[in-house]
Amino acid sequence: MSTRRYSAVVLATLTVVEAAGSLEARELTYRSWVPPRDVFNTRTLPAVFEQVGGGTKGSITFKLISGGALLDARATVPGVKDGLADAGLGIAPCMPNLLPATNLISSTRVWGSDVVAATGAGK
Fold first, then answer.
1. Using CA atoms, how far apart are residues 10 and 47, in angstroms rounded to an integer?
2. How do residues 26-74 score in pLDDT, each as one tens digit?
3. Would you list the DSSP string of 57-83?
4. Contact (Cβ atoms closer than 8 angstroms) between residue 28 and residue 61
5. 27 and 70 fall within a common domain
6. 17 Cβ neighbours under 8 A, 6+ residues apart
7. Helix axes 45-55, 3-20, angle to 10 degrees
8. What's the domain count of the chain?
9. I want to staple 79 with a disulfide (CB 3.0 to 4.6 A). Which of 9, 61, 84, 116 is the partner?
10. Same domain as 82, residue 30
11. What is the pTM of this model?
């Protein structure tokens, strides 16, 4: 798993934890549309959940529902907004109208050390 992908998951999860604030112990539901046996669900998310649990002294725990059982990729962001899940994996380029600021960051990133060549490659 790339550091970038792991960092994005940690950031999204911590955003949810921050929103939970100083609430009493709480189990948050994380909906993942990724297949249950994917490394994202078997290694990455459990590591994130463990870090959050440690950082909150166990007051925040997570229940993972994977494989798109309740929310598929396109329904995750609206589902979190509507309270069907506390958190989930949303990919900005897949839903630019729902995450315009995040999508702007993703779409303007220049890959490679040669900016001119990388910009031309993206056209």
1. 9
2. 999 999 999 999 999 999 999 999 999 998 899 999 999 999 888 888 8
3. TTSEEEEEE-TTSS--TTTHHHHHHTT
4. yes
5. yes
6. 28, 52, 55, 56, 60
7. 40
8. 2
9. 84
10. yes
11. 0.65
Burial code (b: 16+ CB inside 10 Å, e: under 16) for 19-35 equals: ebeeeeeeebbbbbbbe
Cβ within 8 Å of residue 59, ≥6 positions away:
23, 24, 25, 26
Domain co-membership, 77 together with 111: no
77 and 23 housed in the same domain: yes
* Cα–Cα separations (whole angstroms), residue 67 to 17, 45, 54, 92: 23, 13, 26, 19
- Do 81 and 21 sit in the same domain of this protein? yes
- Please give the residue range of the domain that contains residue 109: 97-123
Q: What is the pLDDT of residues 67-122, one digit of tens each?
A: 988 888 888 889 999 999 999 988 877 778 888 887 766 666 666 677 677 666 55
104 and 85 in a single domain? The answer is no
Whole-Å CA distances, 22 to 1, 17, 77: 31, 9, 24
